[in-house]
Amino acid sequence: MKKVFAIAALIAGVTFAVSAQDKKPEVRQEVQKERKMKVDHQRKIKSPEEVAKLKTDHMDKALKLTEQQKQDIYKFHLDKAKKLEVKREELMKAREVHRKEMRAEHETLKKLLTPEQQELYKNKLAEGKKFRGSREGRSFKHREMRHKRMDRKMPVEKEVKETNENSSNS
Fold first, then answer.
1. pLDDT tens-place values along the chain, 170 residues long
2. For residue 164, is it within any domain?
3. Which residues contact 85 (CB under 8 A, 6 or more apart)?
4. Where in the sequence is the domain holding 81, given as residue range(s)?
């Protein structure tokens, strides 16, 4: 009787595993679409008033604020959001100035090169863009794996040092 239940459980487990693997790519795509929509929604630049209201409402839900606290916290968040908006605008202007400088430098450099060298230079720039694009998606995952490997190595090295110290003291 136990064997029959064990075999039935094994068959059910294998069937479940196979069916779960079949649906995995579809589910993964749906999850990715949902995440992208959520991130796109969050990236829309909101006015300082909207930001202050959202943050105040969030704090109110978590902390059950009084009306006076809500007003004070709203003013605080509004002031902070306005300062952040000014900084964002300054950064955008600085970025645009930097881009213009880089374009001007690029044009000056192109004038110094022969047409053949310009073509080679253009190809090198295109290669660089392609390389940068290929490493964006995997950087976090590989960084995470490197950290895990480093964490595994650290205790081993400490143990080796301790054993060497103990052997020299004996």
1. 788 878 888 888 777 776 655 555 666 777 777 777 666 656 678 899 999 999 999 999 999 999 999 999 999 999 999 999 999 999 999 999 999 999 999 999 999 999 999 999 999 988 888 877 665 555 555 555 555 555 555 555 444 455 555 555 54
2. no
3. 48
4. 46-117
Backbone angles phi, psi at 48, to 5 degrees: -60, -35
* Residue where the block lists tokens 């959001």: 81
Asked, for residue 21, whether it belongs to a domain, the answer is: no
pTM over 0.85: no
Q: Is residue 6 part of a domain?
A: no
**Contact by Cβ (8 Å): 77, 52:** yes
The CA distance from 77 to 54, in Å, is 9
In a domain, 91, yes or no: yes
Number of domains in the chain: 1
Residue 44 is classified by DSSP as S
* Cβ pair 110, 121 in contact under 8 A: yes
